[in-house]
Amino acid sequence: DGELSLSRSMLNSSDKIIQKSGSSIFQHSVEGWKINSSLVLEIRKNILRFLDAERDVSVVKSSFKPGDVIHYVLDRRRTLNISQDLHSLLPEVSPMKNRRFKTCAVVGNSGILLDSECGKEIDSHDFVIRCNLAPVVEFAADVGTKSDFITMNPSVVQRAFGGFRNESDREKFVHRLSMLNDSVLWIPAFMVKGGEKHVEWVNALILKNKLKVRTAYPSLRLIHAVRGYWLTNKVHIKRPSTGLLMYTLATRFCDEIHLYGFWPFPKDLYGKPVKYHYYDDLKYRYFSNASPHRMPLEFKTLHMLHNQGALKLTTGKCV
Ligand code: CTP
Hints:
The protein is of the alpha/beta class and 319 residues long.
């Protein structure tokens, strides 16, 4: 079954893991951690059987013409029209083409980052990936500011920018994007219906303000391919979280992947409360069946990969 397999009994106990999250079950050491380069190569090779991040990270201009109709990836009965604006923002070639890095940081959004003082360390990596347009400036000491690649679910427009109802919300958004310079802004626009208006507004603001940010829109097959890879490794995930998606993509172009801000538990190892997000008051949703994600199971897997030297998971202080 290969090194990545988790035993059935471990998987079935994932509910218990949530309850036991205050215990030492996830205690792991970053001191003495060493990269296992042959395992890194093997994982990259295995993931390449399912997807090629260079290609699947974004559809390109030549894939569509304006007016084309596509089916949503996770809601096949519903369709989306490729608008003129969307088409004009599709990259000509993959924004990750031929890009290779020695070390990368994938930064999740857990409140575990608060007081971590990980900012400098995160920024010292060659390539920094962040999720859902999380704010950085006010939290720089703990999360850093470097953002080479940042994701944005369409729901972020509603959640963090007031649905663009006021001019000030739009200004705040444009300001946030202008700070990214020519980094990659990755928008999963083809997953489910519901966010199309938001995506259109975002596209219109980028064009109107001539923002330099390099837009990317994940391929229609990406999510199925990522799920397929983890399923064959016995990690049963209905819908991979953004953080797991980013780790999976990063294996293609990073030799050493360091994860920060992954801690989907309401308490730390010492029983101290941990916010779901380091920057807002959103609550833990994965306890309810409404959440599509299985972050604790994902975390268990990442934790195991840390112990094997495939990636480095930091959940404590950096200094
Ligand atoms: N994450 C985590 N622990 C938390 C919060 C987040 O490990 N307490 C990780 C997850 O991998 C998550 C990523 O950080 O995907 C980014 O966080 P967030 O923006 O909350 O992502 P999602 O929940 O995947 O986004 P959404 O709710 O829009 O699907």
